[in-house]
Amino acid sequence: MQKRLKTLAETLGADIVGFCKLRKTVAGFAYAVSIGVKLSDATLKTIDTAPSFMYFQHYRTANTLLDTIAFRISREIEKAGFAAMPIAASQSLGKNNPYQGVLPHKTAAVLSGLGFVGKSGLFLSTSYGSKVRLATVLTDMPVENELPVIKNGCGSCTLCKNACPAGAIFGELPQENERNFDPEKCSRYMKEHFQDIGRGSVCGICIKVCPKNKL
Ligand code: SF4
Ligand code: SF4
Question: What is the Å distance from ligand 1's center to 183 Cα?
Answer without folding.
Answer: 9
